[in-house]
Amino acid sequence: MEDLDTLVLRTAVGWQAQGLPVVLVTVARTWGSSPRPPGSLMALNGRGETVGSVSGGCIEDDLILRIREGGVQAACATDTPAVLRYGISADAAHRFGLPCGGTVELVLEPMSPRSQLEALLKACLQRRNTERRLDLRTGEVALGAGHRDGVPVLSDTHLTTHLGPQARIIVIGAGDLSRFLCQMALGLGFEVIVCDPREEHRAGWALDGVQLSHEMPDDLVLRLKPDARTAVVALTHDPKLDDLALIDALQSDAFYVGAIGSRRNSALRHERLRTHFDISESALHALHGPAGLYIASKTPAEIALSIMAEVVAVKNGIRQPAPTPVAIGKQSKQGKHGEESASFPGCEVVA
Question: Which residue intervals define the domain XdhC Rossmann in the entry (predicted)?
Answer without folding.
Answer: 169-311
